[in-house]
Amino acid sequence: MKAKKHTIELHQGDLPKGLDFGTSIAVDTETLGLNPARDRLCLLQLTSGDRICHLVRFTGASYDAPNLKAVLADDRVTKLFHYARFDLAVIERYLGIACKPIYCTKVASRLTRTYTDRHGLRDLCRELLGVELDKNQQSSDWGAENLSAAQKKYAAADVIHLHALRDKLDHMLARESRTELADACFRFLPTRARLDAGGWSDPDVFSH
Ligand code: MN
Fold it and tell me: What is the CATH number of the domain that holds 25?
């Protein structure tokens, strides 16, 4: 598949008023690290799949972002994530909202691509879309005052393929009669994130 051109719009602290994201929106977060209790939310990426990727940057001083929160909390808009378990914990902690309904491409992948143990975003993009993702900026400083062009491009790449992945994975879920099981897992995800935040990440409550 040929790489499509996307427009990246960087916003400070909140989305502009009046954006319409339709019925499904791909979302990702970049933080200062992998511990939501310690590592703050720096950037939140969103796209409706219309080739415009919105990046909302936070300095850490304030997470008062009414326009963004309204979109994320809108029950009529499905939020697509890759590994929602982490992003939901971050969103809950820093934005203080319940983000739903949810679709997670990693969960869908685990429920369908049982022939592999490779469920990273990069693996999914390569196998299902024929797209090669560049993960070079993954561990860069997302708290920087000025994000580099490479960082912005990387951040956008984490959301722009999620709609296409969902289409492929939905087809595989239906093929294997696992759509209902996936839906039940997606509905449980906010609880899974709350368990992580509450100290039940490992071992979790379902462990032996
Ligand atoms: Mn990311």
Answer: 3.30.420.10
